[in-house]
Amino acid sequence: MAESTNTTQDNAKNNQDEIALEMMKFIAVQTGYGKAGGATTGFGAIKVGASADQHADALIELFQRCRKTVKEG
């Protein structure tokens, strides 16, 4: 039975992560989040000439914010 409970919890967490990922993709596409010179909608763009690492870090930060929102909701 404990294995069944763990599987259910893992599935719920995976579903939350999938929802957070979809939310992150939607926000990133709609606002240009993480792109140089992009968003002015309050999500904050990265400076022009930013490295790929800075773009990745911005998207990871956005994903973490989305996960937190989904978990709290």
* Order of secondary-structure elements: HH
Structural class of the helix and strand makeup? mainly alpha
Low-confidence sequence ranges = none
The biggest sheet amounts to:
none
Q: Count the strands?
A: 0
Name the overall outline: elongated
- Portion in strands: under 5%
Count of the separate structural domains = 1
**Count of runs of 4 or more consecutive helical residues:** 2
Oligomerization state of this entry? single chain
> Kindly, what is the distance between the CA atoms of the first and last residues, rounded to a whole number of angstroms?
28 Å
- Cα-atom radius of gyration: 15 Å
Mean pLDDT: 80
The helical percent reads 55-70%
Tell me what the structure shows.
The chain is mainly alpha-helical and 73 residues long. The chain has one domain. Helices cover 70% and strands 0% of the residues. It has two helices and no strands. The protein starts with a helix and ends with a helix. The mean pLDDT is 80.
Quick overview:
The chain has two helices and no strands.
